[in-house]
From TrEMBL:
Gene3D superfamilies: Winged helix-like DNA-binding domain superfamily/Winged helix DNA-binding domain. InterPro entries: WH-like_DNA-bd_sf, WH_DNA-bd_sf. This is ArsR family transcriptional regulator.
Amino acid sequence: MLESLITSKTRIRILVKLFLSANNSGYLRGLALEFNESTNSIRKELNQLSSAGYLGKEKEQNKITYRANTKHPLFNPLQNMVRKYVGLDAIVETVLARMGHVSRVIVIGDYAEGMDTGLIDVVVEGENLNTIYINQMAGKIESEIKRKVNFSFTDSYQQKNGLVIYDELIEK
């Protein structure tokens, strides 16, 4: 979906990195190393995205750090597109369908930091969860979003790290 709108793979990678979670940030050389691309191609995309207002930048010591501009009028639609591109919406829909009482769904690991590595680690928090259902549905989700998904289940997730993609208290 996103590839048909945006033809630059570098731009898509930057959008995934910075828009999957508004807390993610990056700087030129770090992104070039992470994406294994030249600094020139990264610089070109960062300059275009920041001049259009999609990215904010701030100087920290000797480097400029970029992050998504949450005040931009298209921030929410862009973030939703990125999350759909990664497949987070499909994960939430499937988990909530017949999972039981789900209180939160949290993405941890690489995807929480905006790295599109192909393996999404998901923590499902809730009581009396139907883990058999989600384990049966995992293959269907993976073929739909073209990424491997690793589910773990808990009644209380205490870690501070992670990207909350569903919270029953917020959704109500």
